[in-house]
Amino acid sequence: MRVSNVTVRKRLTAAMFVGILVFFIIDLRLGYVQFFLGNMLTDSAKELWSRDIPFEPERGEIVDRNGVPLATNISAPTVYVVPRQIKDPADAAEKLAAVLDMSKEKAYQLITKRESSVKIPDGRKISHEKAKEIRALEIEGIYIGEDSKRHYPFGNYLSHVLGFAGIDNQGLMGLELYYDEELKGKKGSVKFYANAKGERMNDMADDYKPPVDGMDLKLTIDSKIQTIVERELDIAQAEYNPDGIIAIAMNPNNGEVLAMASRPDFDPANFRNVPPEIYNRNLPIWSSYEPGSTFKIITLAAALEEGKVDLEKDRFYDPGFVEVGGARLRCHKKGGHGSQTYLEVVQNSCNPGFVELGVRLGKEKLFKYIRDFGFGEKTGIDLQGEGKGILFNLDRVGSVEQATTAFGQGVSVTPIQQVAAISAAVNGGTLYTPYIAKELINPANGEIIMKKSPEAKRKVISKETSDEIRHALESVVAQGSGKKAFVDGYRVGGKTGTAQKAANGRYLENNHIVSFIGFAPADDPQLVVYVAVDNPKGTIQFGGLVAAPIVGEIMGDSLRAMGVKPRKNQIEKELTWMDSPMIEVPDMVGLTKKDLGELYLNLKIDASGTGDTVVKQTPQPGIKLKEGSTIRLYFDDK
Fold first, then answer.
1. 97-106 burial: b if 16+ Cβ within 10 Å, else e
2. pLDDT tens-digit map of 147-185
3. pTM here?
4. Which partner from 52, 453, 468, 620 sits 20 to 30 angstroms from 488, CA to CA?
5. What DSSP element (H or E) covers 441?
6. Phi, psi of 393 (to 5 degrees)
7. Residue 489 to residues 528, 568, 587, Cα–Cα distance (Å)
8. How far is it, in rounded angstroms, from Cα 148 to Cα 72?
9. CA–CA distance, 437 with 139 (Å, rounded to integer)
10. What is the third-level CATH fold of 223-266+280-561?
11. Which residues form the PASTA domain (predicted)?
């Protein structure tokens, strides 16, 4: 059948339109792919061709309040291998094994893995000398990636607070763990391109994505005070060989922790060399034990606030014991202290006197103040592993439990709880949350990302009650059981503590935790220091004998380091037969040698200079020295 020309033309026209439509759709698709999907497809292709050599970020530094570095980083290169680029695996394995001190078999196994890139375990965080040796091998397919490892410049210093970071620079303990997210930063990389055979594509430029370094962490810690604390704990460790020691120094007016240390300690860079129970337990915030007589400050504060006692007018007779609920609770002084004012009860740390204060308060009021001062709950300090202690349930508190709680027995508290509570007792009555991290800082531009402010939890007692407590505790140091914490020129207040340790439901013999908590200046407290020594050997286990002098040394040197001026209006120390008399240094500038000969001083003179007249003296006039101490005089002719 013959088809007409018209039909043919129609079919050709239809075919042409279909062809045009098909080509139009293809053009649209090509345009869409080219202009809209082009970058995405190119990036996807590059991802298939790409190989990454990671660049680790610098972990943020940890510094003290004055910018002194406490945890930093040191460069530590890491070896990477791209197996498909290795031309001669056997030869490469032999050379690499020789430099990294590993077996050839292990090296060969690693560099022949069916992976795009392999991190060599024995080549992680190596020295720059080792990295230089590996580069000198000039083995194609072996790369050196930039990495770093954590460095603690002062070794064991502040170890439990700082904690440590692992091989991957991840925080594992202490501040390193608590602020890990802020410290760790974000990884970067150098990206190069390889074909399906793993051969490097030299016509494509490498891509470099810089790492983002972590934030720097500034602490409330003052390294000057921390150094003093570490020194005194080392001395005590050598002298008493205790089972442990704890020390905390804090600003009572805002909760800033100025120093924190304990023994046994460890080197954060070598934490694997000590048992986990040493580095896992930050004793100042974790350990929980009976506080002993330091807890009497809380009972005293409650009794004063409730108007249950007048320290000067009220008297108490102590026969050496008190009968409560069929139990005989004894005073530490055999035979008792006899008749005494309540100020002397505090000075003598008389247990029966504090039992009486507990009775006057009643158990509801006593335990209300104990909880108001923060006991029985965590303080909220920004460190991992804080304990909360143990208190009696109020419905289970009988007369005996009420009595023992009043003088610090039968309850369990943490050191940081005691420091926070006593700070509230002497700062005017405000309980603060202790904290140790002050600021997070962007190292790139110095911008402060986070700034922590003091957090006042609640008002516990009035300023007037706090004033009375400070006066009473200053008299404890000058005239009572805390004399060995006395610091000439500074008004120091404080309280001793001696608590028996318990095991298997009974108290241990000759095994005590002895403690002292002090503050200064007593008229305007700037520093609270707590020290507890666990089972000191070779000494009488009393807080006033062991812990008080440690606090005295820490307090005196720390106040001077803080720039706190001495005060002359301190309560005069009551001397015992063991104390050397103190002599006030007179002003000797301008005196001649003849004048000095007529001036009776029980002080040794170290003279220098060739003249006849004193032109300079050390120490300055007004300073008190122990009898027999040496003063230096400089002579010249006027």
1. bebbebeeeb
2. 788 999 999 999 999 999 988 888 999 999 999 999 998
3. 0.79
4. 468
5. strand 437-441
6. -70, 135
7. 17, 6, 17
8. 10
9. 47
10. Beta-lactamase (3.40.710)
11. 579-637
Q: Which residue has the tokens 């700082």?
A: 162
The pair of three-digit structure tokens given for residue 396, joined into one six-digit string: 């289970």
List the one residue out of 285, 527, 515 whose CA is nearest residue 415. 285
Can you give the residue ranges of every domain in the chain? 5-36, 51-219, 223-266+280-561, 582-636
Instruction: Indicate the SS3 state at residue 2.
Output: coil
pLDDT in tens, 175-207: 999 999 999 988 876 665 555 555 555 555 456
Coil, strand or helix at 461: coil
Decide: 354 and 296 in contact? Cβ < 8 Å. yes
Q: Helix, strand, or coil here: 77?
A: coil
Hey, what's the torsion of the CAs at 427, 428, 433, 436, to 10 degrees?
A: -20
- Classify domain 51-219 at the CATH topology level: Penicillin-binding protein 2a (Domain 2) (3.90.1310)
Lowest mean pLDDT among 94-98, 295-299, 387-391, 591-595: 591-595
Specify whether the CB–CB gap between 217 and 64 falls below 8 A. no
CB atoms within 10 A of CB 28: 10
Q: Report the chain's C-alpha Rg in angstroms.
A: 36
The CATH class for the domain spanning 582-636 reads: alpha beta
Which tokens in the block code for residue 453?
């402010």
Among 104, 146, 141, 140, which residue's Cα sits nearest to residue 122? 104
For residue range 250-291, list pLDDT tens digits in order.
999 999 999 999 999 999 999 989 999 999 999 999 999 999
> H-helix or E-strand containing 529?
strand 527-534
Half-sphere exposure of residue 408, counting CA atoms within 13 Å on the CB side?
A: 30
Closest of 76, 292, 30, 272 to residue 172, by C-alpha: 272
Q: What is the DSSP string of 592-620?
A: BHHHHHHS--SSEEEEEESSSEEEEEES-
β-strands 216-219, 62-63: how paired?
parallel
Please provide the average confidence, as pLDDT, over all residues in the chain: 87
Q: What is d(CA 344, CA 403) in angstroms, rounded to the nearest whole number? A: 19
Region class of 80: left (phi > 0), else alpha (psi between -120 and 50), else beta: beta
* pLDDT for position 50: 53
Buried b (16+ CB within 10 A) or exposed e, 411-420: bbbbbbbbbb
Terminal-residue alpha carbon distance, the chain:
146
Selected catalytic residue, list 189, 287, 293, 475:
293
Residue 494 and residue 511 in contact, taking contact as beta carbons nearer than 8 Å: no
According to DSSP, the β-strands at 142-145 and 148-151 are: unpaired
Question: Distance between CA atoms of 385 and 416, rounded to whole angstroms?
Answer: 12
C-alpha distances in angstroms, 368 versus 299, 391, 494? 11, 12, 23
Of 530, 62, 473, 520, which is closest to residue 287 (Cα–Cα)? 530
Could you confirm whether 293 is annotated as catalytic?
yes
Residue 27 CB neighbour total at 10 angstroms: 10
In whole angstroms, give the CA distance from residue 558 to residue 436.
Answer: 18
d(CA 331, CA 540): 17
| Dihedral sign from CA coordinates of 358, 364, 365, 371 | positive
* Identity of residue 425: A
Amino acid, single-letter form, for residue 622: G
